[in-house]
Amino acid sequence: MTWLKDMFGVEKPIIAMCHLQALPGDPHYDRAGGMAKVVDLALHDLRHLQGGGVDAVMFSNEFSLPYLTRVRPETTAAMARVIGELHRDIRVPFGVNVLWDPIACIDLAAATGALFMREIISGVYASDFGLWNTNVGDTARHRAALAPALRMLYNIVPEAAVYLGNRSPVDIARTTVFNNGPDALCVSGLTAGAETDTQVLAQVKAAVPDTAVLCNTGCRIDNIERQLAVADGAVVGTTFKIDGRFANLVDPERVRAFMQRVRSVR
C-alpha cells in the first residue's frame, strides 16, 4: 500500500511493539521502582528494537492488565511522559496503542506526535473485559479535530473477544472498509503472541484488496515468510522478547535474526 511505503520506507513493514510496564493506577504497578523504572525499561526495549533494524515502533500499555475499555486519565498522562522522555532516542516512525480506548489513543497521539495508532475502533464484542462497545463515529470526529493526519489501524479480530453477531471476519472487513475507510485492518490470534490464522488473513486481504491488511499477532521467524506472502506488513511483539515470552524484555539477538529473515523474503 502506498501510504505504508511512504511512512515506513519499505514494502511490508515490521512494526515492533514497545510494551510499557504497568503504570500508575494499574494493579501490577511497581511502586518501588516508580515511573523511572518504567522509562528505563522502555528505553532498553526501544534501543534494542531499533538496533535490530525494525521499521517502526508502537508504544502500548501492554502490562496494564486487566485492561479497561475506557482508560483513566493517569494512564494517558503516564504514557505521554514515557514517550516524551524517550523522544530524543526515537529514530523510526512511531505509533501508539492505549489498550483499549481509541479516544485516549488519539489524545496520546496528538500530544506526542505519533504517526499512527492501533485500536478496537468499531464493533461490539463479548470479551474477557466485559461487554465491549465502541463508537466509531465519535472516534473519527475526534481524530478529525485533534490529529487529522493520524493513520488508524483497525483491529477487526480483537484478542480475548468475539464479535456479537454471526458475522465472519471477511464480512466485518468489507463493511468496516465501506463505512469507515480505515488506513489498515489488523487481523489477530486469540491473545498477544498467538499465531494469526493465515487462511483468515488471506480471506480478509482478498475481500479488501485496496486496503492494507496487517498480521497483528504471533509472527515468528519460522512463519513470517508465510504471513508476509499474504499481509502488507506485521505488528510484532512477543517473538522479540527473551525466550519468546510475553512478560520478558526485548532480546536484541532475536530482533536481529528476525529482521534479517524479513529482509531476505520481502
From TrEMBL:
NCBIfam families cross-referenced by the UniProt entry: thylakoid_BtpA
InterPro entries recorded: BtpA (IPR005137), RibuloseP-bd_barrel (IPR011060)
Protein name: SgcQ protein
Pfam families, per the entry: BtpA
UniProt source species: Lichenibacterium ramalinae
Family in the record: Belongs to the BtpA family.
